[in-house]
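Notes from hallway chat w/ T.B., transcribed later so I don't forget. T.B. wanted the structure written out for a chain they're using in a teaching module, and asked if we could keep both sequence and structure tokens in one place. Agreed to drop them here.
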Amino acid sequence: MPGAISPLINLLYPHSITSIRSRLFRKPEPPRKKPNCTYPYTFLAQEMKSIAGAVGEIEGIGPGDYRIRRSGLGYIQSARLGSADVLKDGLHLEHQPEDFLEVVIGETRASVEGRVTDGTQAVSNAVVVLVPSPNLRQRSDLYYVAATDGNGQFQIQARVVPGDYKVFAWKDIEPGAWQDPEVLERYENQGQPVSVTSNSKLNIDMRLVR
């Protein structure tokens, strides 16, 4: 599943709009893959230093297919290069782009917590995963993972990006397998739907996936 591992944008502020100009100077590095990753995307890993509303540059990007991800506070609400939706479809570069990459940063304080049981007793050391809606599952930055404690309690306080998700709780699953469409298809009807807003503080009771 494509996604970014390193930061792209660091010095932006919530609700800002920043234009980014990329420059093609070198060949792309071989794509890095995560477990169960079969998509041929590489990653924009440079920091783009700018202030809110300013224009910055990312230099030395080779032709290829990329996805972007923000580190730090806030989240990428939208990213467009001309008419292309970069968050949804990725960034495809064949030559020096004529348009600016416009990124909108939003703010979120959302969190999700709760308790996992097997139907009767609390389950410790379960893996709880917040999985985005099907149309966004190519974005690895929208998966949130936590483990339950001895009382079956879990907390996801990673400032969750607003949207619709399903929450799953597994006792034994390979790391990253929740991003595999075939794995999710087997368990889809056992996920608990949740809707997250920018100020959500959700508390839910989960049953272990079987």
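Follow-up for T.B.: The two ends are 24 Å apart (CA to CA). Might be a good example for the class.
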